[in-house]
Amino acid sequence: MPQVETLRGPVDTAQLGFTLMHEHVFVLSEGVPHNFPSVFDEDQQIAAAQEKLRELVDAGVRTFVDLTVLGLGRDIPRVLRVAGDIPLNIIVATGLYTYDELPRYFGSRDADVMAELFVRDITEGIQGTNVKAAILKCATDEPGVTPGVEKVLRAVARTHRRTGVPISTHTHAPTRRGLEQQAIFEEEGIDLSRVVIGHSGDTEDTDYLEALLKRGSYLGMDRFGIDIYLTTEKRVAVIAKLCERGYAGQMVLSHDASCLLDWYPAEAVRATVPNWHFLHISRDVIPALRNAGVTEEQIQKMTVENPRRIFEHSGPY
Ligand SMILES: [Zn+2]
């Protein structure tokens, strides 16, 4: 029986069920709450996060992929406290989130030094816990493949080949950054069907999306609720079009939401993107997909079968 590592240890992939492939428990500015603890009320935020995760379970979500890594304030002991006994599989990640420069430690060391640390997160455990990462994360945003970003992409690719865990990326879709990621992964000998090109739902450029799909990758249609980038209506129309063209087996759905993101004042987030929360897909997006002609079978693929296949397709090479 194939299994995947989660916060509570290995789980049969058959048990993953409805899966949100790109979310976060907390996104915190790296180092800020640690240095200035008054900005983050630990007990209050943990209680609020638990309430949000319980609502998500009540809505039928069984698995939550937390793509929080270095650069986004990853803190696995804290996520363990949040998870408590909530009946939700939480899959956690390793990797590095930057749009350009690296933490100074990595600036003077090569990609293999970084890869070695990612491998340990996957094989031994993260931050002194025995929680193992089961997915790799990297990012390319508007600045493109800067030297720092390239080092992360190559370290992630090499870790993937050594451990077999899948890769999930952040991209800036309007500048077609996913194609550059695929090119570097190909240079590193990666099977592109083991990669989710994230934030692909931010664009209506279906020529770009089909180019990514034809090379075998999954698309993360994973920012539902961030209407300022693209409205739900337009995101749904793109998915319906790609389903019609036969790509339901290569898309996954998510919000890229978090219980708390400290980059902006909370009131500003609520006012600007009111639909950006963990329940938007269950409540609003799935009914909208049905209205747009997407079948139950295609919805099942995008929310259950594709995530399962991504985690089952493992093993080093
Ligand atoms: Zn994210």
Q: What topology emerges from the helices and strands here?
A:
Blueprint: E1 3-6, E2 9-12, E3 19-27, H1 32-35, H2 42-58, E4 63-66, H3 76-83, E5 89-95, H4 104-107, H5 111-123, E6 135-140, H6 147-163, E7 167-171, H7 177-187, E8 195-197, H8 206-214, E9 218-221, H9 232-244, E10 251-253, E11 258-261, H10 266-272, H11 280-291, H12 296-312
Parallel strand pairs: 3-4, 3-11, 4-5, 5-6, 6-7, 7-8, 8-9, 9-10
Antiparallel strand pairs: 1-2
Give an account of the 3D structure.
There is one protein chain. Helix 3 links the parallel strand 4 (63-66) and strand 5. The chain has a nine-stranded parallel β-sheet. It has a two-stranded antiparallel sheet with strand order 1-2. It starts with a strand and ends in a 5-residue tail after the last helix. The protein is an alpha/beta fold and 317 residues long. The radius of gyration is 18 Å and the shape is globular. The protein has twelve helices and eleven strands. Bound molecules: zinc ion. Zinc ion (ZN) is lined by residues 22, 24, 67, 256.
Helical content class:
40-55%
Biggest sheet details = 9 strands, parallel
- Number of distinct helices: 12
Number of strands: 11
Report Rg.
18 Å
Give unreliable regions as ranges: none
Q: Would you summarize the structure shown here?
A:
This protein has 317 residues and is an alpha/beta fold. The protein is 42% helix and 17% strand.
